[in-house]
Amino acid sequence: MDSLTHIVLGACIGEIILDKNAGRKAMLWGALANSVPDIDFIAGMWMPVSTELLAHRGITHSFLFAIISSFFLALVAARWHKAEPISLRKWFWFFLIEIACHLLLDAMNNYGIGWFEPFSSTRISFNVIYVADPLFSILPAIAFGFLIFLKTDHSHRLKWARAGVFTAMLYMGFALYNKYAINRDVRQYAVSNLGGNKPYFTTPTLLNNLLWFVVIEDSSGYQVGYRSIFDKPGDFLLHHIEKKEDLLKPVADHMEVMELKQFSQGYYTVEQWKDTLVFNDLRFGQINGWQNPKSRFAFHYYLSHPEDNDLIVQRGRMAGVNMESAKVMWKRMMGLEVEGGLGR
User: Fold this and answer.
1) Which terminal CB of the chain, N or C, has fewer other CB atoms within 10 Å?
2) pTM for the complete prediction?
């Protein structure tokens, strides 16, 4: 999830677990602990982009790191707060819960996370919630605001903290149901129209959980498109894109290509843009694909010009978003028909 969500949710959890024993320091420790796994961005500043993509959410997002870092943080906190009646054991479980919450939330996105590093390089990604979803974060953020201004002995502090965490859990339940419903419809479509069960993935689109990006493998590439949770069961409008694996033959043994394939979890296409060979990771969706179904993919890596790949995960997310595309997106989120036949 985004850093703001980790901070406000971590503060709410800190308030619940440590309560009045640590005062406002519970919020500070909670916000810090829930953000600790993201220290890997420091190492990424000195890595090649393709290597940094795998390093991010790698070892610092593993169960092993969670246990070790919780132990050392507990030692620091217990020594720092000798005056508070909080045992070393409680500090340890506090930090472990906070960091585990971070690992669970990040696994719900599409980026992938290395839970089992360094013993396995398998990346976990459930594709349940967009990396920044305002409806998921809004109540924890409001609760965080109240916790800052309410006195430490105010009777409503714990209520606000619990409300922030509970509403986030409730929204996650809503997102999990949406994921189940979308996946069910995709499987039924594949059986009815593509000749049986096919590998596929679904992931929420920009800043919401109502409109989902759908990718289904076929014989030479993928069927891609968008589906609202309000669309009727038979309302699928997908189009075919070629994988074009052959374009990678001249560079197939290059380290950056192998790292990109691993990072994409196998869902990628290759294109030739004039003199530039481009690697697309399909998991991050298209740039305004709900408006233009044949638009470029948000994650596109320039194999021919690797020096131009700064901020590769970020550069396509908001590109081209304007009032018109927002209106089209809203209609598609609601399952309404839009000009060009992109709706139902």
Assistant:
1) C
2) 0.91
